[in-house]
TrEMBL record:
Any one GO CC term of the record: phagophore assembly site
Organism: Alona affinis
Name of the featured protein: EOG090X0CQ9
GO molecular function, one term: ubiquitin binding
SUPFAM superfamilies: UBA-like (SSF46934)
Limits of the Nbr1 FW domain: 79-176
Domain of life: Eukaryota
A Gene Ontology BP annotation from the UniProt entry: macroautophagy
Length: 229
């Protein structure tokens, strides 16, 4: 992408503003260049050009023309229970299958970054192992639903170690509602997976009541408090 692709009248308007507020300049550069630049990268190019907005944009596009970014394609949202609502203040996991759809291996230190909306995770970044071209992997993020029912959006993107975004944008659109079942679905799936396979050479767990009839174990009151409905 060349500088000519940016509307010149916008560049002139911003250059004439003469603002020295660094936060405003960072915001303006990101607005002009797009979502591929985070705040750290925008501040870097502005600082390198004495916080001159037009010069910083020119430097950014010049850099982009000589440094090819990796690529990532979102293959599928493979979250267990995807589409189900979640109860308030409940832990759950989002999982996406992604692929390296570019021609180069992802650099060491690449990560998935929260970039906008409501952060439903305690993490802002999640490390991702480098993929060779054509390889796929699953990326999981532990999340917690907000306390108030409603619909929440969260945006995530892959980033290089230097903070440059690449590939598809990953959106989380979450419905929080009383009686939501997504977390329960994930828990049941997890328990089924734990109990579905007996390792080779292992015997089934000993059942002390096997072969007995009409035997009912005595339960103390404290046992009832630990039982589910």
């Amino acid at each position: 992408m060349e500088v000519d692709d940016v509307e010149q009248n916008l560049l002139q308007q911003f250059s004439c503003m003469g603002t020295t507020d660094h936060e405003v300049l960072v915001s303006q550069l990101r607005k002009l260049v797009g979502d591929d630049v985070n705040e750290t990268t925008a501040a870097f190019f502005l600082d390198m050009n004495q916080w001159n907005l037009q010069a910083a944009i020119c430097s950014y596009f010049e850099f982009q023309s000589t440094h090819k970014l990796p690529n990532m394609t979102l293959v599928q949202d493979v979250t267990i229970g995807e589409g189900e609502s979640v109860p308030p203040s409940t832990n759950f996991v989002k999982t996406w299958k992604v692929s390296n759809s570019g021609e180069d291996r992802w650099p060491e230190g690449s990560y998935l970054a929260f970039t906008g909306g409501v952060n439903l995770s305690s993490q802002n970044t999640v490390p991702v192992l480098p993929l060779n071209p054509g390889e796929m992997t699953d990326i999981s993020v532990d999340m917690n639903s907000p306390a108030q029912p409603g619909i929440y959006e969260s945006k995530w993107r892959m980033a290089t170690p230097g903070g440059s975004y690449f590939g598809d944008t990953i959106w989380v659109i979450l419905t929080v509602a009383e009686g939501g079942t997504l977390a329960l679905t994930q828990q049941l799936t997890h328990f089924n997976a734990l109990g579905s396979v007996i390792p080779n050479g292992s015997s089934p767990p000993f059942n002390p009541f096997a072969g007995q009839t009409n035997v009912r174990p005595h339960l103390h009151h404290q046992d009832y408090s630990q039982m589910g409905p």
